[in-house]
Fold this sequence. Notes:
Elements: H1 2-8, E1 27-29, E2 35-37, H2 38-47, E3 68-69, H3 71-83, H4 98-110, H5 113-127, H6 132-140, H7 143-153, H8 156-169, H9 173-179, H10 182-198, H11 201-217, H12 220-224, H13 228-240, H14 244-257, H15 263-269, H16 272-282, H17 286-299, H18 303-311, H19 315-322, H20 328-343, H21 349-357, H22 360-370, H23 375-386, H24 388-391, H25 399-402
Antiparallel strand pairs: 1-2, 1-3
Amino acid sequence: MEESIMEEIEIPCYFLCPISMQLMKDPVTVSTGITYDRSSIEKWLFTCKNTTCPVTKQTLTPATEYFTPNHTLRRLIQSWCTLNAHDRIPTPKPAVGRSQILKLLEQAKNSPESHQMVCLHRLKSIAGRNEISSRTHLQAAGAVEFLTSVLTKSDAVSRDEALSVLNQIELSDSELKKLSSESSYCGFMTSLMKVMETGNDESRAQAITLLKSVFDVADPENLIGSKPELFKQITRILKDKISPQATKSALKLLVELCPWGRNRIKAAEGGAVAALVEMLLEVSERRVCELVLTILDQLCGCAEGRAELLRHAAGVAVVSKKILRVSRVASERGVRILCSISKHSSGNAKVVGEMMEVGVVTKLCLVVQVERSGKMKERAKEILRNHSRVWKDSSCIPPHLLSSYPSPS
């Protein structure tokens, strides 16, 4: 009833933001004299990277310190809401400007370590305000450099707090790129590895999330030069099941790292294959299955990865099981994995026999039957042809699928 009443009430046009055309909650006036809702003009300037006033097209200084809160208009809007039974708009907190953050950082740098935690809490409060301007000012004022120094030099408690703030800031690509530069990369990586090894679950989750963001923009040299210890720590996070977000970050990081240099071997030797197989046995979520099978496909591109998959009692069986059950992407990855195993095990009667016993042959025949065309069907046919002498007359293949078995070439 109240909603229908509100639909009949016309909001005065000067209460509407020119960008969103919604009732303004925190009106601010820019240098051109036009008033906007703070969240809308911040998004226009900082997220969309515009430099002009949306209405007048005149150039604006890209800093919210030059936004003037329009208190008079806000009070008028609040009064109007009260008179018209509209949800009252709360009075917004004062915006935090770059000069305030610079002063805070200066105090933190010149204060003893005992006072540093107070500054970190204040920075965390600013970063947690969910304002684009606050996060932008933090980065522009040098907060990232300060937080990185805390991360690399301070005690575990301060380190965890600094890591939390870094994740809240949502670093820009340019800031992430700085973290992967030669001057700070080694110390930064060492600190994150320490957190992943000894930190609590929350800190470890934050470390892997930040690490994934850094590697998203890192140069190939950083990816190729990844240390074996990194893969061991990523594997530990997968095994410990810290959180769904941490698991996905770890999986995406492996997808990013494994194609480069000897990283497949490092991951295989770090125990990644066994951890991934165990995960595949337990999860049913489509995206997680696709990521796991993508990584296993990459790892089976090296002898060490294939050996680890075959060493696991459920390795081949669970890969086969996921084919045609999760998604097309998962099925394609699964068939690729079986193709890699098949090519390099043609003379291994034990492996060929295991593939028949765990239902691989039946699943491949089913792929050939249901797929009209494409690489997945051709790979399935190739595997079946390569082992036709052993598999074709096997009683393991259901009679209705025998007709799908391809003739030897």
